[in-house]
Every structure is written in structure tokens, then in C-alpha cells.
Design a protein that fits this description.
- This protein is of the alpha+beta class and 112 residues long.
- The protein contains five helices and three strands, in the order ααβααββα.
- The protein has a single domain, classed as Arc Repressor Mutant, subunit A, CATH 1.10.10.
- β2 and β3 form a beta hairpin.
Length: 112
């Protein structure tokens, strides 16, 4: 289980915060979707995702060549509550990134 100090440390980084809010909003995203949404390099996004996975904040699922990231199902209720409150309060902050995601061509689909 993640400690509160570890979660807040994760959230203090802007890229990790936006990544977690996007994942919470969309339920599941792959690296290419996050790079498109955030307009960040693949290595940078992957590095942050690896940190989040190592802390147990996100989990992965592989489907064909895609690896999808979602919030870890074992994340505590208080941690989910923090993310939900932050998403509700900051949804306008991620709207540009949601727009980037919506405009993405050839977006991978979990159902292909």
C-alpha cells in the first residue's frame, strides 16, 4: 500500500499529476495516447509511468503490442478520493490534454 507521503510526492510533479488525472478520467491509456495528450516525449512519459508503477499507483495490461496503464485496483480509498477531488477541481486544467487525446489519429483501441 502506498504511503501518503509517496502519493503526494507523485502528485507534486506536474507530468505525473496530469498523467494520473488523465488516466483517472479515461480509465486506461497507453504511452502513445499519453505522449499525444501531454505533448511530451515518449521517454519522459515512460519514465514517469515506470515511477508510478514501481510505487504501485498504476498497473498495466498488455493487449497485442499495446501496454495500457490504469490506476492500481489495490489503491486505497483515501488515495482514490484524493485523485477524484483533484480531478473534479482541476478538470479545466486537463481539458487541453483531453482535447489533444480526442484529436489523436489512429488511436489504439482496447477492443481491436
Amino acid at each position: 500500500m502506498i504511503k501518503s507521503t509517496e502519493l503526494f510526492k507523485c502528485l507534486s510533479d506536474e507530468t505525473r499529476l496530469k498523467t494520473l488525472l488523465l488516466i483517472r478520467h479515461e480509465k486506461e491509456l497507453c504511452v502513445c495516447e499519453l505522449t499525444e495528450a501531454l505533448q511530451e516525449s515518449q521517454p519522459k512519459v515512460s519514465r514517469h509511468l515506470a515511477q508510478l508503477k514501481n510505487l504501485g499507483v498504476v498497473a498495466t495490461r498488455r493487449q497485442r503490442q499495446w501496454i495500457y496503464y490504469r490506476l492500481n485496483e489495490e489503491l486505497s480509498d483515501w488515495a482514490l478520493s484524493v485523485l477524484d477531488v483533484t480531478l473534479t477541481a482541476q478538470e479545466n486544467m486537463i481539458q487541453t490534454y483531453l482535447d489533444n487525446l480526442a484529436a489523436m489519429e489512429n488511436r489504439p483501441s482496447c477492443c481491436d
